[in-house]
Amino acid sequence: MVPLEERFPRPSVMGVVNVTPDSFSDGGVNFGAEDAVATALRMAEEGAAIVDVGGESTRPGSGGVSPDEELRRVEPVLEALQGRVPVSIDTTKAEVARRALALGAELVNDVTALRGDPGLAEVVASSDAYLCLMHMQGEPRTMQQDPQYGDVAGEIAAFLEERLSFAVAAGVPEERICLDPGFGFGKTVEQNFELLARLREIVALGRPVLVGLSRKRSLGRILGDPEATTGPLSASLAAAVEAYERGATIFRVHDVREHVEALTVAAAVG
Ligand code: 7PJ
């Protein structure tokens, strides 16, 4: 069993492949399986360590899809990528994860941190998959309606520590788990930036930290557009380097080549 920190050395880039009609920042671009496969192959060539394939949008305001619809979207993509590109499955559903792992996925990216589907922990525990546990306050449909924290970094660290214990108690070895503070998931612009500034408090939990900052709306909003629903590449790269500097390991991004280049420079500085 290769520990996650050896399989994904710092920094590793995870390319985002959404197979959804309504995703956060590339909605529709990869909705066809062929386009998604081509995107994933290109991302691997550009230096992605893994691609995160998702069939359900979790952008602010979105509702859910059925397991059947989610599988209909992702299965052909997973089949085509099997044995060619390392794959992560972005799902909250046990049934989707089980099928994805059977089709060669090696990581389960669960934005509910095992709070969504009661069967998911067992699916991961009975496989040899890696697992990402992400923080979210509320649920996608309503999470941006006035999120509240006393101490944003402290509360998120405590949450992730509890979910890590839960996953380990459910039989997922700690060395297979990474943690994600969930930028943009029930957080204001100010809360997201405080969390990024204090990312070391999440890293201090002792597990590799995955960050998803790429194209997030807080980046567009800090640049002066109060209605922004996405952020530019330039801002995404700056945010990734700031996260790297504070100890982040895996970077979930849409623009793989540019992030690999920026993070190579950041890593050379040390
Ligand atoms: C994240 C994610 C993130 C993890 C999304 C988008 C919004 N999974 N899924 N972390 N964001 N682990 O693609 O920008 O930040 S959906």
Give me the secondary-structure topology:
Blueprint: H1 4-7, E1 12-18, H2 33-45, E2 50-54, H3 67-81, E3 87-90, H4 94-102, E4 107-110, H5 120-125, E5 130-134, H6 152-169, E6 177-180, H7 189-197, H8 200-203, E7 210-211, H9 217-222, H10 233-245, E8 250-253, H11 256-269
Parallel strand pairs: 1-2, 1-8, 2-3, 3-4, 4-5, 5-6, 7-8
Helix pairs in contact: 2-3, 3-4, 10-11
Bound molecules: ligand 7PJ.
Written account of the structure:
- There is one protein chain.
- With 270 residues, the chain is α/β, with parallel strands linked by helices.
- Helix content is 41%, strand content 13%.
- It is built from eleven helices and eight strands.
- Helix 10 (233-245) runs parallel beside helix 11.
- The protein is globular and about 40 Å long.
- The chain starts with a helix and ends with a helix.
- The structure holds ligand 7PJ.
- Ligand 7PJ is lined by residues 16, 24-25, 58-59, 90, 109, 111, 132, 134, 180, 182-183, 210, 212, 215-216, 252.
